[in-house]
Design goal:
two-stranded antiparallel ribbon, 10 strands, single chain, eight-stranded mixed sheet, 270 residues, alpha/beta, 9 helices
């Protein structure tokens, strides 16, 4: 454990944001994260592929939103900075885009405030827990105009909000606050261990059980219908709620990437 100002960092147990960085091939992790990350890989070897494909889904979704004219983004539950953060992607298409990142993780907040900056549009990082949508909205209003459309992102984070009804209400609360024409983009890992489930999904579910027992933030994979229900009442963008590798993949990748146990979608608020 160590301190940076008033923020406390735990280095004796795995951290979910650092684990994700490790699976993506980043450098911001500790030995305890590497050990836990490798143990997860031994249970479900596809977790690194899932992490990479989740990042590619972010790229495609944010590009799509920027191409639709969205110039404001609210990235809720942001992880550690990478080389392809939401504002980097959006501002490549429209330099004036404004992005607010939210997190309650002290490590993420420290890195984000130091690294997530922009010389063109605007970037802000605010401390707000994903369990507290009211605070998220209040903090985001300081940087975003809620009378204009906003691209709301929940990228693999709703599984950390339990039970499911609380995650669902968080999404609905944020959507009620944003203007018509806003978009919801969300994905989460799935737990679909029915009779027809592929073997990788059994391994995926067991991996999350280990992840939670190792001390990282507890994560609950969802059933596909639960993910679909997050988009109820919205106008789904084709192809709808699907495995993230199937959401508008580049032509060269169609059929080339195996499905991963993570589903998501992009949808417009009418």
């Amino acid at each position: 454990m160590y301190y940076a100002g008033s923020l406390v960092f735990r280095t004796d147990i795995p951290n979910s944001a650092r684990l994700w960085t490790y699976w993506l091939g980043g450098k911001d992790y500790y030995e305890v994260d590497r050990l836990a990350g490798d143990a997860c890989c031994r249970i479900y070897s596809g977790i690194t592929t899932l992490a990479v494909q989740a990042q590619q889904f972010r790229v495609r979704a944010v590009c799509f939103l920027a191409e639709q004219g969205i110039r404001q983004f609210l990235d809720i539950g942001a992880g550690l900075p990478t080389t392809e953060n939401t504002h980097h992607i959006a501002q490549t298409i429209a330099p004036q885009c404004r992005v607010v990142y939210t997190s309650s993780d002290p490590l993420v907040l420290t890195h984000a405030r130091a690294l997530l900056t922009s010389s063109t549009g605007a970037v802000a990082t605010v401390e707000a827990d994903s369990h507290d949508p009211g605070r998220i909205i209040g903090q985001a209003r300081e940087a975003l105009d809620f009378t204009e459309p906003i691209g709301v992102l929940f990228m693999g984070v709703l599984g950390y909000i339990r039970p499911y009804r609380h995650a669902h209400e968080t999404v609905r609360t944020v959507l009620r606050a944003v203007a018509p024409g806003s978009y919801l983009t969300a994905w989460d890992a799935i737990d679909d261990r029915g009779p027809a489930a592929e073997m990788w999904n059994y391994h995926n579910a067991e991996m999350w059980n280990y992840h939670n027992s190792a001390g990282a933030d507890g994560y609950a994979p969802r059933r596909p219908p639960q993910i679909a229900n997050l988009f109820a009442g919205l106008e789904l963008v084709a192809p709808g709620v699907v495995p993230i590798t199937q959401w508008q993949p580049p032509a060269l990748e169609v059929g080339a990437v195996h499905s991963v146990p993570a589903w998501g979608a992009v949808a417009r608020k009418p």
